[in-house]
Amino acid sequence: MMKYIYIILIFICQFSFGQIENLFKYSTFYTSMSMGSPMVERDDYIAIDKGYEDVTLIHPFDYNLTIGLRKIARMDYEYKVKTWYYGTEDNVADNVTIGNAPGWEYLFNYSFIRNRGDKFTEQNFWLRYLGNKYVTKIQYTDNQRVKLKYTSFDARYRLSIGNFDFTIGGLLRVHPVYGIVPIEDLWVPGENTFTQLAEDFGYSTEFVDGDWHWFEGDELIATSDDEFYNWWFGDAVASFNERELNKLGLQKEISLVIGGAYYKWTERYWVHLWANIMPIHKGLDDYSYEYGDGLDMFDWDSGAVIGCRINKNLGLFIEGAHIRYWGKNVFDVKFGFNYLIF
User: I want to staple 308 with a disulfide (CB 3.0 to 4.6 A). Which of 27, 49, 115, 269 is the partner?
Assistant: First the structure.
């Protein structure tokens, strides 16, 4: 990850001092920490001898530590209603290709998260230049919550016609191997048993008191087949897949990208729609993602923000974004109404 940050920093350092001053003007550096009680899991028990044991999961507290720097012009429908910026806000408009102001914009956001006992990070770094005739963007995303990670460089020609924007260009993406499941090559149903597969993972068994005991090295980890396959086997398969995929390294591909956007804002209503479609791809490595037919040959990202004030009391809204990269679907949708009582 750090090498991509270095590339961005070197890129920034190519400007004159005056340009750098303008680059950081009106930007916001933020950091925040939130903590809260975790979700209480349903009571869970296992049978032991002639009794039972409470094995209900008790998670440590949830937290989110976020650090970031941003400079993104707000769209007309976005209002700054808070004193502080926390960095955990989910602004759909941050995903658009065409922003609300020309020039340089950026977002560097890094979050350390623990949720229901699982620790992970979310990283989103991008730098964009919006001109009258072109737009360029470099981005690094590592969303461990949905297991989507990539670095991209986007360069496009831009054509503006009234409230519409059209773009076309090329997109270079660098990412881990997607679409390959290593366990499928190791385990052939009907030819390999679960026991043989577990032994290939380094586990061993010993028949004790009428049941199989499972060991990892010299450590006893399960006293029955049911316990091993319910609690250990799945993690072993997942760890194997992860190790094998990491050995294949990062993959590169170039895609044609075609974008369209529409933006209209008034005091009574606003409509903001955008979509970027990648219909043609060229893999540059042996394990680049293999696209299928029909919709499976396309990658895209799209979004919409629609709102209206029906009268002085009632307002309706819907907003959302949907990304499909390498067969992974990531989406976020919000909709509802506000009714002001007075």
Answer: 269
Asked whether the CA dihedral 93, 97, 103, 104 is positive or negative, the reply is: positive
Whole-angstrom distance, CA of residue 232 vs CA of residue 240? 12
Residue that has been written with the tokens 């950026």 in this structure: 106
Question: What does the domain layout of the chain look like in residue ranges?
Answer: 2-180+250-263, 183-247
The residues, ordered by sequence, that sit 6+ positions from 195 with a Cβ below 8 Å of its Cβ are 205
Q: What is the C-alpha separation between 36 and 131, in angstroms, rounded?
A: 43
> What's the CA gap between 333 and 90, in Å, rounded?
11
Contacts for 263 with CB less than 8 Å, ≥ 6 apart: 75, 98, 163, 165, 271, 272, 273
Quote the CA–CA distance of 313 and 330 in Å, as a whole number.
34
Q: 256, 279 in Cβ contact below 8 A? A: yes
| Tens of pLDDT, residues 287-331 | 999 998 888 999 999 999 999 999 888 999 999 999 999 999 999
Q: Which residues pair with 261 in a beta bridge?
A: 165, 274
Q: Where are the beta strands (DSSP E) in the chain?
A: 28-36, 45-48, 51-54, 62-71, 103-115, 118-130, 134-143, 148-161, 164-175, 203-208, 211-216, 219-222, 251-265, 269-283, 299-309, 314-325, 328-339
* CB distance 163 to 76 below 8 Å: no
Query: Using CA atoms, how far apart are residues 245 and 242, in angstroms rounded to an integer?
Result: 5
pLDDT tens readout for residues 87-126: 776 677 778 888 888 888 999 999 999 988 889 999 999 9
Neighbouring C-alpha atoms within 13 Å toward the C-beta of 278: 22
Closest CA to 172 of 153, 148, 149: 153
